[in-house]
Structures are given as C-alpha cells and as structure tokens.
Give the backbone structure.
Amino acid sequence: MLDIQIKPEGYTDYVSLELPENFNLSMEDNNPLFAIDIIEGTYSFATSLPASPHNTRLLNFANDWHASTPPPRQIPARLFKDGILHSPGILMLRGSGAKGFRINYQSKMSGLGDKLSMKLTELNQVEHVLLSLNNISFLRGQDKQGNAPQVTYAPPLPDGNRKWVRIRFTRSLDITFASKVKINEEEFVRVDLIPIENIIDNINASQSYRACYEFYRYGSSAGENDGMDLFIWQLNGDPSAPLEVTFEDPIKDPTRISVYDSYAPYWNAAIQASIDALYFNNAESNFVCPTFYGPNLWTGVDESLAIKLGKQVNRPKLAGNGYELAPISPHFSTYSIVPMFTLKYLLRQIESTTGVRIMVNWGNMPGLEQLFLFNTQTINCFEKVYEDYWVGTYQPVIKPIDHLPDMSVSEFLLELKKLFALSITYSVEDNVLTIGAIDNALKGKPIEDWTIKTDPDYDIEWTENPGLKVGYKTDKDDVLTQIVSEDGVVVQEGITTELVIGSGQQDYRSMLSPTLVAHLNGAMKMPKTSLKGGWFTSKVEVKPKVLLYHGISASTRNHPYPFASIDNIDSNGNVVGLLSLELEGDYSLYKLYLRRHADMMHVGLQISGTLYLSLPDLLNWEYNNVYRINQRNFLIRKLSYNLNRSETIIAKAEIVSAY
C-alpha cells in the first residue's frame, strides 16, 4: 500500500526501498478552497528504514557513509499510495542507528512560493505616458505631402450636447513647434479649439475664446498606431456651433479642420470615455486611463490660494445644475489624477513576471476582470496662471506598479480570494494557477453519503464557530470626504468607510477595500494620500491596501462597468451597476459574495470529528465534493490521518457546512 522509490546515482529508473511491516506516515490533506496560502501542499516526515542488504545497496551506505559524521545526502524519490503516485520529492539520508537508516522525506517544491513571494512593486514595469495638459503654444499639423491629420469621430453620449474629436498623428507627420513643451524629453503640440460662434456666458461675442481641452498621447511599437492621438473635449461654448481646429504652420498656410458631430463628456461620462479611448486605440494590457478630478483632492494646501486663483477666471456652470465644470478646466487652480488599472492588467503582469500561467473562471461574475484597482495614492497637480495661458504641472509618466501596495503577489491573491469568495488552486505539473468562483467549483458535483463512516459507538461532540458580524469601519487615515460648494471651497470634511467583517474572536478584514467615488449628487470621496514626487504630498502614511473603484455609472455603450457606487443609485435615482456596498439588497457586495465566503470560512457549522475511511476513500475524495452526514451536507476542510498498511484508516476530519 505504501511505496517509497528512489533513483540512486548511476540508476536509470526508480527502485523501491524495503519498508517495515508497521511502517506508517502521518499525513494531512487540506482543501484548497479553505487554504490560507496558495502554495502547493508539501509533505515532510522523518522515519527509519531497515538496514537490509537491499536498502544498503541502493543507498550506497557502505561506500561513503560514516555514522559519526554523515555528509548531507539527497536522493530523488517518489511516494506512492496503493500504486498511485502521491508526490515526487527528495529523500534525505541522515545517518544510521540501531533501527536502521534515518531518513527524511520532503515533497518536491516547484518554486511557486518564491515566485509569489515577490512584491507587486517588483512586477514588470510598464510605463504609460499621461496626457499633456500644458496649455502653452501650438503650431503646425501637416505632413510633408500637405495632408492634414486623420480625424476620427466617436458616437455621441445620450446627452449629445457637447463636442469631442480624436485627431491622430502618425510618424510621417512633420511637426514643428513655436514653443517647446517637453514631457519625458519628447516634444508635444498645443491644440486650440476655437468656436466659430463665440456665444459664451459673460464673454462678448466679438471676443475670441479658447475652449477647455485635453489631449492624450498614446504610442505603440509598430504599425498604423505608431504615432500620437489627441482627444479634444470642448467643455464650454455654444454646443450647436462647429469647432475649427487650426494647425498653424509658420511657413505654409494654416490647415483647418472643421469638427461638427462630436461631443465632450464630463464627470462619470469622462471616465467612460477614457475607457473607450483605450478600446478605440487598442491600448496595451487594458490599462485604464487616469481619471481627473477638480478641484484637487489633496489636503494641506492653503485654501485661500486656490480661491484666489479660481476667482481670476470665468466660472460657468454646467447645464445649470450648480456644479463646477469638471474634470479639467482652467476654472480650477488644482486637480488630481487618480491612476486606475484593471484586475486583468494586474494578472497579466503577474503572469509575465513569474512565468506562472493564470487561468480564470469567474463563474457568475464575469465582470470581475474589469474591476478597477488603484492605491491610496493620487498624482496631484497645480496650475499656474501666466499672462494669457495656464500650465498644469504633474508627473508625465504613470507606472501602475507605483500605485500598488507593498504586498506580495500571494497576499494580494489571498485578499482577492477573501473578498470575492474565490477558489485558488495550483497545478505543479502544468504550472497553472487557477482562479475561480467557489460556487462554480461546487456546481454540479454529486453528493456522497458518509454517515456510515462516522463512529457508530459514541456520539461525536461537534464544535461550532460563534459566527461573524459585519459592519463598516471608518478610518480617518485612509480616506477623505470633501463637500464642495458652488464656488469650489471645501466646506466640510469627513471620513468614508472600508468594509470590515469581524467577530469577537477573529477579524475578517480585507486589505482590498471597497471604496467609492461619488457622483454628481454628493461629495467626492477619495484617498487623500499622494504619490511621492507629486506637486504636493500628504504626510499621511500610505497603508498596504488596494482600493476597489466604485462610482462609475452603468453604461449602454460597448463596455459597461459592473461595479457601482455605495448605494448603487445615480443622481437621477436609477440603478447604475451590478454591485453596491450596502449590506442588504439584490446588488449587495456582501450579500452576493462576502457572506457566502464568510459562511464557508468561519460561520455556521464547523465540525471536528472522527471518520473511518478506506484507502480508496482517501484517494478518491475531492475538495469540491459535497458529503452528507446525518442528513446534513458538508465540505471537507481538512483530513488528518496515519497512513499505514491497515485496511481501515482512522481520520480526524474538519468539515464545514455546505450551504
């Protein structure tokens, strides 16, 4: 029933060792659904082998061993149970004594532990150039043949009353500059949006008005995408008037492009447009565009400075709703950039860095790979007013790795596992890490009755976990609430919450905190700590956590985002997503996912008892099978037993109620 095989030096195949009649091993099988780590199971035991001629010959003891000072000796080995390979490993020969040879057996490690112990900040560095907001000079936009840049229009948003155009430059475009704007030692251009009809509040029709704009820069290594894209959003001016985008050549006549059916998004729409921009441009690795917020989200700066600067320019209202223009405008003296990236992006970086293939099966939650992540860090920007233009100062290059907490890959995956009730298993043979929903792992599995395998002679004393309580815990060092009045002044500060599950005996606190960005009907709730190297930096220590982005309205466009705000309702009272942070309700993150995992891990009936199992029972039990004992269904959490030559094996079992 038990067989240890070794491959001695000079042998081409494995050979069995002679084991004593009473040979047994203390083993423990753990269900990976409940594992506290995701490193493959290891088995280590110490025992003695009889000093028979067969064993002596295989271990080559007589030739190079001395009982007094044995050198370290490691031999490739395999452990079989009933003819089935249990695990490959290493047999370590420690010496000899009255009972024979002293050995240790250690199952072979794949190195997964070392790979997943690396920090998230040590993953492959992929840089993404931020958009330029430097409103300094603009000139020229013809290629050498006199052709204008390519203009691409986007489908309008439902409101459809604002303008947006994308202009693509290719490498063949010969661009010159009147004033140099450098970002990462590369020169950029300026774009002026000039409404033909200047019908703007508080500005005479005869005056020329420079509309608010943004332009993004993307580049790729080859092909037609090898160039620069400008995403231009008009945030004010007459929505019905066409735009005339002028590329001025100091030598040739200006090239003019008239723009008509386009728009400029704002607030939640701006976030969605940033996402769509990536899909339009086939951006690498699904990196999510930075999201902009004005006024600035950082603290510690003299508010009077922002007020003073803000009063120097016109402050028109958006659609008469009393909110300031956002996300970026010269009407704000400060703003913040919140770098966001998807879970899919992060898993790709883990896979490319570690070499471990990652397979996912989200079950009934396919949108999880779209989950937006960001750390408690923002890049904060400060705009200065000069005679006739504004300058935005900020870090021009974003590395998503810089916005990850000081957690290992293993810690991050385990936090994700806790938060969304995932199963994470690893195959040594295939070098594949499989991530999926627990419900999906259990779906369709048969139920096997193990009632007869319990002790018939006495009643088992069951022990139960007292359960968990769920609540929201505030932490003033993590996040800041800013209530902004019509003139942009912060009038109230408070704190928002992170979700914590805990009981009197054990806290269930995830470092992956559901956090929110509110919509137009409330405060902006964002982290207040800043990325080192930003214009201003908060002194608040950055804690090792990743935040889940909430607050994006559900979209009827091509790429809806499934996670919503704290109450799952937008400013118009409509349900906007698939998840909320409420404890109850059909969209509750806790009700749908956290409670399920908490129930399986800690809540309900957690039982320790004795089972009488055959060797086939041990060899054939599966971690995702449901077993019935006395008319109740359970999952096996752990089996502890002595493996020997007897027909019946007494196993101590920890089982958890399967809801």
